[in-house]
Amino acid sequence: MIVALTGTADQIPEHSEPIKEDGTLTLPYIGVVRAAGKTPGELQNEIRDLYVPKYYVRLTVTVKSQDRVYYVGGESQTAWPSAYVGETTVTKGIQSAGDFTDFANRRKVWLIRANGKRIKVNCNKAFEDASMDPPVYPGDQNPGAAPFLLMIQLLILTGKKAAGQLIARHFPFSIGRASGNDLSLDDDGVWDQHLRLEFHPQQGIILTAAPNALVTVNSRPVQTALLRNGDVITLGAAKLQFWLATVQQQGLRLCEGFVWALLSLVVLFEAFLIYELIH
Question: Is 214 in a helix, a strand, or coil?
Fold first, then answer.
């Protein structure tokens, strides 16, 4: 859920967070607000009444849902979050990601629900029998025939480490001046612990700034934000560009290694035969 507060003298960072299991959001100053079961209009009015006139004289509140996604990885042609625009299934999700690679095991595909439940799917049978093709919901992972691995790439556009790049393979991922961060940036205006990136299965990669730390996404001040491909993050004198990195397909690498090893043995065997014929 994204809550934008506008119409005040000072610009207020946009607030973004998933609705908690108890159906609430936590907003600056006013604290906990119940969001579940309310329309965006009802929630906008309630939030405005909590802010005005206690904290602001005038205020416009805009509430909108974040993009819902599911994840396709492993032995599919492309491995990116896919927008959930309506009912879909395992086979349709894989086809939307460019279909299987040549090395995929179509009889052993795992669907991982957002709650961690794992469902084994035989896609060869699912293509023939729709009852064996389970539905996919927002937050689900469809790792194809290999383990799912989400990675992000950060390109450093400005600052002391400009032109550098970093692949993040684990979450949360912290960025700041201190050496203990996953990415340490010694630039003006960067705090010891400036921001962190977290993976939320229902939404994607969420940026959260440290309290009172100045962070902008595409030149817009934020406290929290859902990141999308190409977003430019500014903290102090440093600018980073966010991209979802290509997923490493572990099964494909193993198959390639096996093929090269087999070819090497064939070459050695042929060399041995030639040697025997000559001598």
Answer: coil
pLDDT tens for 23-77 read 788 888 898 988 766 767 788 889 999 999 888 888 888 887 655 556 565 555 5
Structural contact between residues 60 and 83, judged by C-beta atoms closer than 8 angstroms: no
Provide φ and ψ at 256, rounded to 5°.
Answer: -65, -40
Of 29, 33, 16, the C-alpha closest to 55 is 29
Rounded distance between C-alpha atoms, residue 250 and residue 18, angstroms: 31
Cβ count near 227 (within 10 Å): 20
Report residue 63 as tokens: 């509430």
Sequence-separated (6 or more) residues with CB below 8 Å from residue 38: 46
- 78 contacts: CB under 8 Å, gap ≥ 6: 72, 97, 98
Question: Closest Cα to residue 41, out of 60, 55, 54?
Answer: 60
Of 218, 259, 265, residue with least CA distance to 240: 218
